[in-house]
Structures are given as structure tokens and as C-alpha cells.
Sequence to fold (155 residues):
Amino acid sequence: MHVVLIVYPRIKKVSYLILQVPFRLVVLQMKLGMDARYLCYCDLPGIGGTLVATETNKLSMFIMESEELMLEVGVKEVGSPWEPKAVCSDDRGRLYVADHDNNRIIVLAAASGSILQEFKHEQLEKPQDICWHEGSKSIIVGTKDRKISVFHIEF
Fold:
């Protein structure tokens, strides 16, 4: 299944189009913050379709079907100010968050928001995009200076 997100920042609404037959367009009335910067659709095991939004010092996850806020991860949970710039998920219910200001990747359990792992690397200077590659069990990270790095993840 493929999902296209359409964002209306002024009125704080999000629509999504599910690309399967028949097509379905849904308008969500989610409480997105004023500085929501990044939206990501994640199909998480045991949870289903979720929408993850990042803001300065906060990550919010909504269950798409019910529009319910499922999880918020902020400074208190992470332990320091952070700038979650981009998010992706794997098939085991983990969220990988590119923390732009702290030059690190934080791995969260999607169901609880608890930190499973945090790592830094010299190639992680201002990470701003991230995606999961299932075949190689790796994350691919793009940085502010347009460098791309691949990290194999082991748990």
C-alpha cells in the first residue's frame, strides 16, 4: 500500500490518499503544532497506519484511523533539547529519528516512545532525512551538506 500525504499548514489539517483500488481520500483534523516540520506515514506491526509529525523538541504520533494522539516524545523523554528532523520505521515497530541539532540518530519503540538506542557518527553532521532499507536492515541518512551515509543496524 502507498500513502500520499497532503498537508494544509494554515488550517492544521492533513489529508491522505491511499493508493489502492478503490482510491480513498481522508481528511484528518489532527492537532498539529504550529511548527510541524515533517510528516511520515508508518505502517507499524500491531498498531497499523500512523502519522508521525516532528516539531522543535517534540515528536507526535497519531493513529490514522481514529485520529487519536498515541504518543508524544519531548525533551523530558529524550533528556535534552532536540530537533527531530525526519523519521522512518522498520518492520519491528521501531522509529528511527534524525536529531538534526545533536548530530545523532535516536531509535524509539513506537508503542511506548522509550529510547532503544542512540548513536552518533562522524558522518552524521546535521542529519535531515532518513529512510529504512528492509533488505539490508540499514538506515540511509542524508545530511545538511548533501552527504548520504548507510548504517547497518543490529539489535
About this structure: The mean pLDDT is 80. Residues 106 and 118 are 4 Å apart (CA to CA).
